[in-house]
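Render this sequence as a predicted structure.
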Amino acid sequence: MDKNTIIGILLIIGILVGYSIWNRPSQEELERMQHRRDSIAAVNKAEQERLAEELRKAEPESTLIAPDATAADTTQKQQMQEQFGAFSNAAYGENRFITMENDLMKVTFSTKGGRPYSVELKDYKRYDQSPLILFDGDSTVFGFNFFSNNRSIATNHLFFEPSDHRSEIRLSDDSATLKMRLKAEGDAYIEYCYTIKAGEYMMKFDVNMFNINKLIASNQTIIDFDWQVYSPRQEKGAENENTYTSLFYKSGDNVNDIGASKDTERRNNEPYLNWISFKQQFFSWTLIFRGQSVNANLESQKPAVQHKYIKQYKAAVGMELDSRQAVQTIPMSIYFGPNHYKTLKKYDIGLEQMVPLGRSIIRWINRFVIIPLFNWLGSFIGNYGLIILLMTIIIKACLLPLTFKSFMSSAKMRVLKPQIDEINQRIPKEKAMERQQAVMALYRKVGVSPMGGCLPMLLQMPILLAMFRFFPSSIELRQQSFLWAEDLSTYDSILNLPFTIPFYGDHISLFTILMTVATVISMRMSSGQTDTSAMPGMKTMMYIMPVMFMFFLNNYSAGLTYYYFIANVITITQNEIFKRGIDEKKLLQKLHANSAKPVKKSRFQQRLEDLQKQQRAQAKANAKKRK
């Protein structure tokens, strides 16, 4: 990167920041803007209420619910019979709510559709400390769609009869079961059987069908299950929550993500689908198939107004049905709970792969190093700020040999700088290849490897990347405070700005500022240990890179920027100790002593020299041809 490019980048950043400050509104304009925001919020609220009302009323023409049976006359009953056929009696009913709960969650069921209406996780709260509700029943579709005697039937709009008429069902012998039955004519019915156990986020869900084969076509082998949910906002950092909110599914041995950044639709044609999960940043609800299913249409969309909901999920799954059998069961389970790695791992069906820990070596480091260390420290320390501090110290201590080797390599090259300067003065710039060969010969003679300082740093990069993945996805940090940070899983704002800076945001995160300052100091110290005369742009990059990361990480997890800050402080301390402990005169004498020893060329060095000789010979031959 040359000087002009660097100046251009700085000017662009300066213009963006200056433009934002220059266009900062006056107090009167701020009041008008606030009034406008309040008006928009009111409109948004009205729009959400209208949307919810439409969702309650948006039923296909063929499945409209009839008026109360007591008010229906003979003509209306005939119309219901014509529309719903064998299921016409289920079009009438009273929408009742029944709750089942254990020590971890409270599930509310609706008799309309026989579906889970809402789920509250007792151990968690939303960012505003209100109860954490995974989804709102008015925005949920949960049921089977099929044809019966040429009539379209959607169980989501029909009324089920519960086996227990109590409004609250409590655990008995550490479990509780609710059966809800959708009756058809004669003795045919569809029964939903829900079972929850103490200490479990997993709920068993079995669909029992009795004589339904009499009401459907004899050649029908697939019955469609429709599941649609609006995902509500749960976290303070809406940008981060959007990034980590996505639809996952497992087919065979592969766990796939259909994408979180844009509206996506995907059709899965594989013969076996293990599970489908509607995932938020820290929570998910997952439908697990314990039987075979085929042809899943999966869809993830962002609502037009993202005030209350941040995603809409849709899954249409075809499930196998044997029309020859009068009695059959479709076994399933539903997980309502946190995206906690250890909790998901215990089910042994790949749910833990939803936790974004990175790929290949990055995921390996998180699984077998970072998470076990984090959990071990958390077993006897309750403050997560201290856990991160101790974890950083332990990791930096383990990396100390690599850090020292990198520092020593830089120190050796620094004490050789006068000799390198002499070579550069002796050999003109036009003979760059010859100059490089002379420098490499000097390094080889004294036993210094130019890559000695780079390789140890490269080996540390996977740790930094693993941390980048670990902290934003660690539910343990959610709503855990430390110093001024109220929530280590999101940004630590010390000042909310009345305007938005492009690529930065509308707030100032203190840990991000401290990380940036510590990074600049660390890079400045490192540049003092290394010869950068051949790369004049490096000194400018020393300031540009930390500023770029400051813009990028301002909205990220405070736990992440806190870790980077502590890691840089430890690096600065280590480098200062190394510097005071090294006698450069003795180091130079040792290098000179190495130069008296015979130099043994490695195979790589020999190949490099042979390649350089071939290049010089080719250059001479080309020069002769031109003459």
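Summary. The longest helix spans residues 27-57. The domain at 59-355 is CATH 2.70.98.90 (Beta-galactosidase; Chain A, domain 5).
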